[in-house]
Amino acid sequence: MDNYLVSVSLILSFSLTVIGDTSVCHSNADGHYEIGCRSYVICTGGRGVIHNCPDPPAQETVYNSAKGHCDK
User: Fold this and answer.
1) Tell me, what's the pLDDT at 44?
2) Where are the alpha helices (DSSP H) in 2-65?
3) Mind listing the pLDDT tens digit of every residue in the chain (72 residues)?
4) DSSP characters over 24-36
5) Do 43 and 25 meet the contact criterion of CB atoms below 8 Å apart?
6) Count of domains observed in the chain
7) Which pLDDT value is given to residue 1?
8) Confidence (pLDDT) at 31
9) How many Å apart are CA 29 and CA 8, to the nearest integer?
10) Which residues are the signal sequence here (predicted)?
């Protein structure tokens, strides 16, 4: 039961992110836009692709909006 609830929560979270991603790309110019501290979307022509920051074993990375990519 617990695994089911976690799976449903993850699916709903992803769905909400995709919806947010779409609105970000429709209302902004091409570029990189933060959609969470560990994820961002690259918009091109009103369409977006979500990217998640990698999580190496020794260090977490977060999206740095000033640099336009993930770093420590």
Assistant:
1) 93
2) 2-27
3) 555 444 434 443 444 444 444 578 888 899 999 888 889 999 999 999 999 998 776 678 899 989 988 988
4) HHHHS-SEEEEEE
5) yes
6) 1
7) 56
8) 92
9) 33
10) 1-20
Q: What is the rounded CA–CA span in Å between residue 60 and residue 38?
A: 9
Please give the C-alpha separations between residue 68 and each of 4, 5, 10, 16, 48, in angstroms, as whole numbers.
Answer: 35, 34, 26, 22, 15
In this structure, which amino acid lies at residue 50? I
pLDDT for 36 equals 87
**H or E segment and range at residue 1:** none
Range of the domain at 11: 2-71
Both tokens of 32, joined, read 């990189």
Q: Distance between CA atoms of 49 and 63, rounded to whole angstroms?
A: 15
Largest pairwise CA distance in the chain? 43
In this structure, what token pair is assigned to residue 13?
A: 């979270």
Question: Is-above-0.70 flag for pTM?
Answer: no
Which of 55, 53, 50 lies closest to 15 in space, CA to CA? 50
